Amino acid sequence: MEQETTLNIKVVNTSGNPLPQRQTIHAAGMDLQAFLTETCTLEPGERTLIPTGLYLEIPPGYEAQVRPRSGLALKHGITVLNSPGTIDSDYRGEVKVLLINHGKTPFNIANGDRIAQLIVAKHERVQWQAVSELDLSERGSGGYGSTGV
């Protein structure tokens, strides 16, 4: 079995909530918690930016991705609107989560509620190579739905 490596990331936590953490040992995502002074009600169809009180220093070559929590999406229709939201390595502002209520009833968010997942991922720098045509592939130019049902 492959050993997992650990990436050290500097974090300032002004919320008093625990730092993002995995709920199981092999989970990819770490839960982000709301940092609120009072409960926020998200009406059906409404979107709002929820602060976390976290400020991150992501190393160059990495990004943090903010993603929905599957349980909130399934049970309440709550999701991250710009999913996945990207936190770039040069951003030093507060991590905030843009939530939307796709459900049919109002949804309350209180301080400390787990509202999203955070995943840190490596990314590559790209050097575009302009060409007049691309190599052929088995799929070709087949787009949406072209690989079957």
Quickly describe the structure.
The protein contains one helix and ten strands; from the N terminus they run E-E-E-E-E-H-E-E-E-E-E. By secondary structure, it is mostly beta strands.
List the topology elements.
Blueprint: E1 10-13, E2 30-33, E3 40-42, E4 47-57, E5 62-67, H1 70-76, E6 78-80, E7 85-87, E8 94-101, E9 107-109, E10 114-122
Antiparallel strand pairs: 1-4, 2-10, 3-9, 4-8, 5-7, 5-10, 6-8
Structure description:
This protein is mainly beta and about 150 residues long. The chain has a single domain (about 10-120), classed as Deoxyuridine triphosphatase (dUTPase) (Deoxyuridine 5'-Triphosphate Nucleotidohydrolase, Chain A, Distorted Sandwich), CATH 2.70.40. Helix content is about 5%, strand content about 35%. The strands form 3 sheets. It has a 4-stranded antiparallel sheet. A 4-stranded antiparallel sheet has the order 2-10-5-7, with no helix packed on it. Strands 3-9 form a two-stranded antiparallel ribbon. The longest helix is centred in the middle third of the chain and has 7 residues, at about 70-75. It is globular. The mean pLDDT is about 95.
